Amino acid sequence: QVQLVESGGGLVQPGGSLRLSCAASGSIFSINALAWYRQVPGKQRELVASITSGRFTYYADSVKGRFTISRDNVKNTVYLQMNNLKAEDTAVYYCAARQITSVNYNYWGQGTQVTVSS
Question: I need a surface site. Which of 14, 103, 111, 117 has the fewest CB within 10 A?
Answer without folding.
Answer: 103
